[in-house]
Each structure stands twice: as structure tokens, then as C-alpha cells.
Write a structure and sequence with these properties.
7 strands; alpha/beta; binds S-adenosylmethionine; 7-stranded mixed β-sheet
Length: 181
């Protein structure tokens, strides 16, 4: 029997990510992708003309992403296993959208590490790129403040249904832009 979570993944996740701003043909970095709740629907949206970098420090999580991608016949996901350091192995100005979903909080990153990570995300983002943050476990104003200090500009706040720890929840996404300077 299908659970609410299965139904959300099959029927709603793409709409949520489209509302967040992901478009066909884009290059997306899903930083801290976990088991791929957002990677798979993002890959369906960008299609064969686009691509997803699914980056995580956990090999088990990346194996899970690969397992989920297979039956969907998705060939546009590149798995990137890192050591957990802030350095992102992608070129300058190469990404249209970065997802930071439930990952930049203090459980994983100190304030200093977060600053280093945001500088890396700035470097790999194309001018005009979107950075969409699911600031779970964080104060929204603190996230805004840190993102703005990293030279991203706040664009909008969305209140949507999301998947967190295998359960559906209504929560905020914060969208930021990487300026063109
Ligand atoms: C709470 S999960 C969120 C997963 C996914 N973004 C989601 O919202 O469903 C956080 C993920 O970030 C990964 N992670 C944490 N710190 C990381 C780092 N420094 N570099 C890469 N991945 C990291 C963890 O391994 C974990 O898979």
C-alpha cells in the first residue's frame, strides 16, 4: 500500500521543486543530497538537457540515490562523494541552482565552516543562479543574515509541503540569488 510519503514523492515533489524555481535544462547541485528525496524529482524536471550533481559525504546515502534513480531510468545524475570538507569539486560559475535542504545547520557545520561552504557555493554558482535553502533546525533570520553576508540576495520565502525524516511537513524554503557582479 502506498504511504503519504510515496504519494508525495510520486505526485507532488516535482511541483514543489518547480515552485522553488527548478527548470528543464538546468544544472543543479543537491548539496548533502541524503537518500535523494529531492534529487530524483529534480532530475525529472531538468531532463536530459540538464543534470544533477548529487553530493554527499555518506557513501550509503549516495548508494540509496543510485538505487532510487535506476527504476526511474534517470541517467542525468552524477554522484559526488566528498570527505565532508567545504571544497566542492566543481568549476567556477558552473551551476544554475544549488539546493541546501536540511543540511547547513549546526549539527553538520560550525559557523566558520558554513561561511567557507557558502563562499564555495558562490564560486560554483553561475551569475544569476538560484540557491534554495530548507533551513530546518535553523532560525530563518539567521539564515538570511548569513546568506546575505556571503553576498547572496534574498528573493522570496515559500511555504510548502516537504519531506523531512520520512515524514511530510509544512515548512519554509528560502530562495536567494547570486548576483551578476
Ligand atoms: C538531514 S540529511 C538531508 C538530506 C536531503 N538534503 C534531504 O533534505 O532529504 C543531511 C545530509 O547531508 C549530508 N552532509 C552533512 N554534512 C555534509 C558535508 N560537509 N558534506 C557533504 N554532505 C554532508 C549528510 O551525510 C546527510 O546525508
Amino acid at each position: 500500500m502506498k504511504t503519504d510519503t510515496d504519494r508525495w514523492l510520486e505526485e507532488e515533489a516535482e511541483a514543489v521543486l518547480k515552485e522553488a524555481g527548478i527548470r528543464e535544462g538546468q544544472i543543479v547541485l543537491d548539496f548533502g543530497c541524503g537518500s535523494g528525496y529531492y534529487t530524483i524529482p529534480a532530475a525529472k524536471i531538468v531532463g536530459d538537457r540538464g543534470g544533477i550533481y548529487a553530493l554527499d559525504k555518506s557513501r550509503d546515502s549516495l548508494n540509496e540515490v543510485a538505487k532510487r534513480a535506476k527504476p526511474e531510468k534517470l541517467n542525468n545524475i552524477l554522484l559526488i562523494k566528498t570527505s565532508g570538507k567545504s571544497r566542492i569539486p566543481l568549476g567556477d560559475e558552473s551551476v544554475d541552482v544549488t539546493l541546501l535542504y536540511d543540511v547547513i545547520h549546526s549539527y553538520y557545520f560550525s559557523a566558520t565552516e558554513r561561511k567557507e561552504l557558502l563562499a564555495e557555493i558562490y564560486r560554483i554558482s553561475k551569475p544569476g543562479a538560484l540557491i534554495s535553502v530548507y533551513p530546518r533546525h535553523m532560525n530563518l533570520e539567521d539564515v538570511k543574515d548569513e546568506m546575505e553576508k556571503a553576498d547572496f540576495s534574498f528573493e522570496r520565502r515559500l511555504f510548502v509541503t516537504l519531506l523531512h525524516d520520512k515524514a511530510l511537513t509544512r515548512d519554509y524554503l528560502l530562495n536567494f540569488g547570486r548576483g551578476r557582479q
